[in-house]
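Re: weekly structure request thread

Next one in the queue (381 aa):
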Amino acid sequence: MPSPNAATITVEIPTGLLALRARDGNDISALCDVAARANPKRGFLIVSRVLGRHLPTRPAAMRRTMDELGAMVADDTPEPIVFLGMAETATALGQGAFAAYRRRRPGARCAYLQTSRQRVRGARTIATFEEGHSHATTHLVQILGAEVASIVRSARTLVIIDDECSTGRTFIACAEAMGPAMPLLTRIETCCITDWSDGGYVADMPIETRIHSVLDGAMEWTPGPTGAATALPLGSNRPGTAPAAGMRSRTGVMAPESAHRERIEVRVGERILVLGEGEHSYEALLLAEELEAAGAIAAVQCITRSPALPGGAMRSVSRFTDTYGSGAPCFLYNLLGHAPDRVVIVSEVAGDQIAEARAALAELGADLPVERLECRYGSAS
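Done, posted below.
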């Protein structure tokens, strides 16, 4: 990446040349880095420094970004409001922005939903849409519960939250898919950390749309002579199955959620890496905040389906099994980026996470304690 305070950058990666230009002289490198996708559909990946996914991120930086996005939704936004976080990358970001809005306006009539790549038993699927450039294209929007269903049916505003916007086509697909389930909708608001679309998608949105981002600008992508991969691995778009006691945000919540899980002891100054899994990422932030309150130095990352090539922002690539049973390959990048003393995995599904994390550490020449905290939602039983 370029030197600090760069408002215009050009980065050469194995799959091509990416040029980014930020408006108003904003510093691109403060918010993101760049990597190459292992995906023939799109060769570049904008890697956020404040998302807590591909790069280790301190919880305060994540929370500041969530609060900033939540503050962009005005107090006079027509209610009811549905906040929709985009799977899998922006599920924590979306719930955090919803939490920020809820804190500011506790009496507002609103709910939080997320798209998902996991099917929830007994839920009603109200919309599906495709994210054409993704490794996992199909988004499911599922609901359970009369109160959430009522908010969705009567909603006047839909707030769609994603980490990054390149063209805006996914926002358009989402808005068009949600329309039949939200017949009274009068406004859509899109929120993301970085928006490189130059606002070009707004004219194609189905109803009045307001756009918000922490940083906005434009990009130019020049593909290289060879692609990142001839084909994505089998199973990349296959849905998994959410556990019965899994997070409720997949089917709608009226307030930010937290899991029932054990608490862990920390030493003051201990460096702890907290790992989420796929869509299960907001709880990783909550745990990291608890650990820092107890004196630790915490950072958040996630095991993810997103395939990327080594190099650029990706200093290391480790491989994991999808515990949700989809068969999709999963990855963890920059495992030692936080220089952790300990690794803690927060998960909804018991699997081989500890053994796989230890094997990944061993490949990188490290031998660290690894533990898993089981997270259950709903009743404490």
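Helices lie at 59-71, 91-104, 146-154, 169-178, 282-293, 353-363. Residues 258-374 form a domain with the Rossmann fold fold (CATH 3.40.50).
Next request, please.
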